[in-house]
């Protein structure tokens, strides 16, 4: 059974810092991995989708990497801003038609 | 175009009552997923549809939960004899198809509170 973990559970940083969020999964046979952002009381906003054949994806100040063989992904946020404060979730898709298996999330606070 | 929409945004009910939660997927998306998110946790899979049929309902916690998608677009998640433990945010997502490379787009969720 696929399990997804995220470290740290919570992170507080001053504005302007670069930071890394970690995601680990137990079964490397995944179709893709997606990073989401969730603001309090809101739904999920997709940030980056990495297909199993890809190593990384970039969007603006965000960069996500994928190492399938080791079961890891990292989300790098450059020059963090208070508006980046949210919970960040990673999720892996495990097969054709399959649902996502989500991690518990990392709660990020960027202090002005 | 419009994204995934869910109604109601909030639902408060009493223990033992019946509730229906609605999801309107992105037009043309054939795959539809339901997830449940408890406080402080990531979403957990409930059921997904390809077209009108439930392709996988293995995540439904028990037979009080049921979902339909009669015309292959709008879906309704139905919960009978609600219990306090059913309180959570129910999220719906849709994608163009079941192929693994398709991105899932999520709605804002319905927050269900069972008193």
How is this structure best described in words?
Chain A is an all-beta fold. Chain A contains no helices and eleven strands. Chain A has strands at residues 4-7, 10-14, 19-25, 32-38, 44-51, 56-59, 62-67, 72-77, 86-93, 100-102, 106-111. The termini of chain A are far apart. The mean pLDDT of chain A is 93. With 115 residues, chain B is mostly beta strands. Chain B has no helices and eleven strands. Chain B has strands spanning 5-7, 10-13, 19-24, 31-37, 44-50, 53-56, 65-68, 75-79, 88-95, 105-106, 110-114. In chain B, the strands form two sheets. In chain B, strands 2, 4, 5, 6, 9, 10 and 11 form a seven-stranded mixed beta sheet that branches. In chain B, strands 1-3-8-7 form a four-stranded antiparallel beta sheet, with no helix packed on it. The radius of gyration of chain B is 13 Å and the shape is globular. The termini of chain B are far apart. The model of chain B has no long low-confidence stretch (mean pLDDT 92). The chains are: A mainly beta (112), B mainly beta (115). Chains A and B meet through strand 4, strand 5, strand 9 and strand 10 of A and strand 4, strand 5 and strand 10 of B.
